[in-house]
Design goal:
This protein is of the alpha/beta class and about 325 residues long. Helix content is about 30%, strand content about 25%. The protein folds into two domains: about 180 residues, HUPs (Rossmann fold, 3-Layer(aba) Sandwich), CATH 3.40.50; about 120 residues, 3-Layer(aba) Sandwich (Rossmann fold), CATH 3.40.50.1220. It has eight helices and 17 strands. It is globular. The termini are far apart.
Length: about 325
């Protein structure tokens, strides 16, 4: 039995969720006497395949200049052909924007099921996988079992599993595959990739997040949120209302129509708690809510709540945390 992890990467670095899945996948593989494998596509992948080989028994590497940018047509075809050839039992990816797009298409191509945006996975000794995911806006969690269709596929939220460095790094086999890219199978063409200048950690991988909603009142007031984030080493997030008002970019949006996050700490400033926002952050380990409305829905999900004006509370937090940091 094989457990496969899709190794997403960006700007020469593996996504953190990939190493999280490989870490827990190593445990599953040893328990079920399975092979742990990684699949990676791109160009100039040698440094990344070396890292993957420390976790995985095998690394399938598609390295070609035509794969330098993600293209769903090409990626789906190459991975689907590889899966049909080797028939793994389990195929996992991170629930990132790319992962969600790729695996939905891939599951359709393979004719198998897909559990999306999972907050937990267990694998029995018999290789049977149980996936846990939220439904109804996070009000209910369900366990999803799979029938006899293979592979069992799921996308996993980042920060669910602990990333670990192998105590005894493996010397996994790197299998280089020359991609057979037929121009007829590529229906879309990437003309250009525009990168934003972003110095902070991506929201989906951040361990600490400070978000603000409509209660911040103006884009200029985000300077206060950024100061708090800087003190605790956090990434700045925003609600949909803020993004719709163009106070922050879409990259900063947390929620159903933005990014799904699972940080160790989520501080919500002036966020009422609309359901589409809650669905994007309800699996955070600790949630702190600051809102002057005592009936704000966000307090139903918060571990700690402060009923007061964020313009009084946040500056106090910055001052006190700065003192602690300087000690």
């Amino acid at each position: 039995m094989d457990i496969w992890i899709f190794a997403e990467h960006k700007d020469g670095n593996l996504k953190k969720v990939v190493l999280e899945l490989l870490s827990v996948g190593r445990t599953w593989a040893e328990k079920s006497r399975s092979k742990l494998c990684a699949v990676i596509l791109g160009h100039q992948l040698e440094p990344l395949t070396k890292i993957l080989a420390e976790y995985a028994d095998k690394v399938y590497s598609f390295d070609d200049p035509d794969l330098v940018h993600y293209n769903s047509d090409t990626y789906v075809t190459l991975i689907a052909n590889l899966v049909k050839e080797h028939r793994p039992d389990i195929l996992l990816c991170g629930a990132t924007l790319l992962g969600k797009d790729l695996f939905a298409r891939l599951a359709t191509r393979l004719g198998t099921g897909l559990a999306t945006d999972c907050t937990g996975i267990t694998v029995g000794e018999d290789g049977r996988m149980i996936a846990k995911r939220p439904i109804y806006g996070g009000k209910v969690f369900v366990d999803i079992a799979y029938d006899d269709s293979r592979p069992q596929m799921a996308s996993i939220r980042p920060n669910i599993f602990t990333m670990m460095t192998p105590a005894e790094p493996k010397q996994g086999e790197v299998i280089k595959i020359k991609p057979d890219i037929n121009p007829n199978m590529v229906r879309t063409k990437i003309l250009d990739v525009v990168k934003t200048t972003q110095s902070q950690v991506d929201l989906t991988e951040a361990e600490y997040i400070v978000s603000a909603g409509r209660g911040i009142k103006s884009p200029e007031n985000f300077k206060m949120i950024e100061e708090l984030a800087e003190v605790i080493g956090a990434t700045v997030g925003a609600s949909r209302a803020v993004v719709d008002n163009k106070w922050r970019s879409y990259d900063d949006q947390v929620g159903k129509s933005g990014k799904t996050v699972s940080p160790k700490l989520y501080i919500a400033c002036g966020i009422s708690g609309a359901i589409h926002h809650i669905m994007g952050m309800d699996t955070s380990k600790v949630i702190v809510a600051i809102n002057k409305d005592p009936d704000a829905i966000i307090f139903n999900y918060a571990d700690y709540g402060v009923v007061d004006d964020l313009f009084k509370v946040v500056p106090l937090m910055i001052d006190e945390l700065s003192k602690i940091k300087s000690v």
